[in-house]
From TrEMBL:
Pfam families the record matches: Aminotran_5 (PF00266)
PROSITE patterns for this protein: AA_TRANSFER_CLASS_5
Name this polypeptide is given: Cysteine desulfurase
Organism in which the protein naturally occurs: Ferrimonas sediminicola
Keywords tagged on the record: Pyridoxal phosphate, Transferase
């Protein structure tokens, strides 16, 4: 581990246990002490509901909660804090978009383009809205290497394309989408663009203005924050036009039995008491990432990925999936003749936690001709020694199964 990242592991209490090589970070990352402490402090010293109390504690809770929104705004370089909406995670962000934007925008025959890497959280909400409105959900196909087929994408873009939904980093393959090419093309076709940043935020610097998308979504728990909190950022002019997604307290300005007036942004999309402690935890997690040496982090994650790829290439019967070229944070693999679940169980018995299955990407698995795969995924605190421990466990398992 490089020097600037050396002390990281000590900050993660859950890593301090024997026989645990945690390589399932794309599912969820561990949480640093400062995130746990911030949430604990909120409940012990500041707990009150936000935006509504006339008392000191409520004022403090509101300021801490809204401070977390400011942290998100600066972390993704959003133009305005009102454009940052707290959700339960990427899944809720996508449901909000499909239901609110979809019902406002889609007409029969309209087209929604979505990449084949897409997580079910992106596919299913748009699929359901397409069924309701008569729009069509069209997948952007893959090349033989598992990359997005840019020629096919360009051919699919057209006057009927209303929405383009893209995964920034594939959770199953670790592939990174060429957003710098794809987003301007979508915009030129007049489409609204959505980026699923769930697997990007822990690894890449995010600047929604440079990206040039209309919406950006991510989950707190995949970037060292708590579960139950996520973000939807959107361009103000679009958010202003969209109807609310849920109704209740917080999201209204005026209510009578005859009708209601909705609140201003971002509260229009935040019905009910929000996940206050979780938002505060997320703000702390983003501050943790901000303080990392980004260059060192990138070099370290590249070293981990290169080591695991070289190690897998040397193991007979082990095949990295879509492992040619660049993989960021995650790599899928299979063992010839063996079920991915069996490999996962045997690795677990050796103290190595990986993910096995379809990774909530069944259409991707179908496109690759797979029932599922095993996946290793890294966070900043993983070490080369852990990669070696994984590789030696995998070697023992394949030799044992080969006997
Ligand atoms: C790329 C991607 N998108 C969306 C999601 C859904 O995230 P969540 O379950 O936190 O809502 C995940 C989770 O694995 C993901 O990896």
């Amino acid at each position: 581990m490089s020097a600037p990242l050396y002390h990281l592991r000590n900050q993660f209490p859950a890593l301090n246990q024997p026989d645990l090589v945690y390589l399932d970070n794309a599912a969820t990352t561990q949480k640093p002490e400062r995130v746990l402490s911030a949430m604990n402090r909120f409940y012990r010293e500041q707990n009150a509901n936000v935006h509504r109390g006339a008392h000191r504690l409520s004022d403090l809770a509101t300021r801490t909660f809204e401070g977390a929104r400011d942290k998100v705004q600066s972390f993704i370089n959003a133009p305005a804090r009102e454009e940052v909406i707290f959700t339960r995670g990427t899944t809720e962000s996508m449901n909000l978009l499909a239901q609110s934007l979809g019902s406002h925008l889609l007409q029969p025959g309209d087209e929604i383009l979505i990449d084949t890497w897409a997580h079910h959280a992106c596919i299913v909400p748009w699929q359901q809205m397409a069924m309701r409105t008569g729009a069509k959900l069209i997948p952007i196909p893959l090349t033989g290497d598992g990359d997005l087929d840019l020629d096919a994408y360009q051919a699919l873009l057209g006057p009927k394309t209303r929405v383009v939904s893209l995964t920034q980093v594939s959770n199953a393959l670790g592939k990174v989408a060429p957003l710098e090419v794809m987003l301007p093309e979508a915009r030129a076709a007049g489409a609204i663009t959505i980026v699923d940043g769930a697997q990007a935020v822990a690894h890449l610097e995010i600047d929604v203005q440079t990206l040039g998308c209309d919406f950006y979504a991510f989950s707190g728990h995949k970037c060292y924050g708590p579960t139950g909190i996520g973000v939807l950022w959107g361009r103000r002019e679009l958010l202003e036009q969209m109807p609310p997604y849920q109704y209740g307290g917080e999201m209204i300005q005026q209510v009578s039995f005859e009708g209601s007036q909705f609140n201003r942004l971002p509260y229009k999309f935040e019905a009910g008491t929000p996940a206050i402690a979780e938002a505060i935890g997320l703000g702390e997690a983003l501050a943790f990432i901000d303080e990392l040496d980004r260059k060192a982090l990138q070099a370290h994650e590249t070293a981990l990925m290169e080591r695991v790829k070289a190690g897998m290439a040397a193991l007979p019967g082990v095949e990295a999936i879509a492992g040619r070229g660049h993989n960021l944070g995650a790599l899928s693999f299979r063992v010839e003749g063996e079920h991915h679940q069996d490999i996962g169980i045997l690795l677990d018995q050796a103290g190595v936690a990986v993910r096995c299955g379809h990774h909530c990407c069944q259409p991707l698995m179908q496109a690759l001709g797979l029932k599922g795969s095993c996946r290793v995924s890294f966070a900043a605190y993983n070490s080369l020694e852990e990669v070696d421990a994984f590789l030696s466990a995998l070697k023992e398992i394949t030799e044992f199964l080969d006997d």
